[in-house]
Amino acid sequence: MIGRLKGVVDAVGETFAVVDVNGVGYEVQASARTLRTLKAGEAISLAIETHVREDAIRLYGFTSEVERAWFRTLQTIQGVGAKVALAVLGTLAPQDLAHAVALQNWAAVEQSPGVGKKLAQRIVAELKDKAPALSIAGLNVPANALGQGRAVPAPNDTAAEAISALTNLGYQPGLASQVVAAAMAELGETADTPKLIRRGLKELAR
């Protein structure tokens, strides 16, 4: 199974890119958001999800492990296949999808091509329960979003936990530190991690 491709972008299509790896061109399906970041001739490293079917082998590419984790998680929901998962990720960046789930904002998910109201409602409702994830502040974050091989902060290190969670949702460490510091100043040093994360997400959503 292919887990990562490092090479040069040979071409970019409407729904895919061709990545040249040592003279071999791999066709990689990707979200519209990811494809917009790719330019022919540029070096690229993509996290890859490989789907093997009887009639084809398809590669799906992502610019981050977090995005790939959400791609996998979305497909655990009934009615969501690879195409719909890519559509959602093409509309919402991982941190925006996290916000939608945290706030149960199905209308944001409904903006994705091919996603109707009922499916959008199902997505935000079921992501909390069906994802193989850590439950933080009422928000399920895919396990891969927390980073592999990273030590989990001690339970009493609430600020570090909150900063780590926000950083691994895709926010810059400096920005995550700022909003957590502001949350602690507002809520007090005794505030627990979930409260800090909720307050931080609200600040980041402004």
Describe the structure.
- It is a single chain.
- The chain has 206 residues and is of the alpha+beta class.
- The chain has three domains: 4-62, Nucleic acid-binding proteins (OB fold (Dihydrolipoamide Acetyltransferase, E2P)), CATH 2.40.50; 65-133, Orthogonal Bundle (DNA polymerase, domain 1), CATH 1.10.150.20; 151-204, Helicase, Ruva Protein, domain 3 (Orthogonal Bundle).
- Helix content is 44%, strand content 22%.
- The protein contains nine helices and seven strands; from the N terminus they run βββαββαααααββααα.
- β4 (43-52) and β5 (57-62) form a beta hairpin.
- It is globular.
What order do the helices and strands come in, and which of them pair?
Layout: E1 4-12, E2 16-21, E3 24-29, H1 32-35, E4 43-52, E5 57-62, H2 65-74, H3 82-91, H4 94-103, H5 106-110, H6 117-130, E6 133-136, E7 139-142, H7 158-168, H8 173-187, H9 193-204
Parallel strand pairs: 3-5
Antiparallel strand pairs: 1-2, 1-4, 2-3, 4-5, 6-7
Helix pairs in contact: 2-3, 7-8, 7-9, 8-9
Could you give a quick summary of the protein structure above?
This protein is an alpha+beta fold. The protein has nine helices and seven strands; from the N terminus they run βββαββαααααββααα.
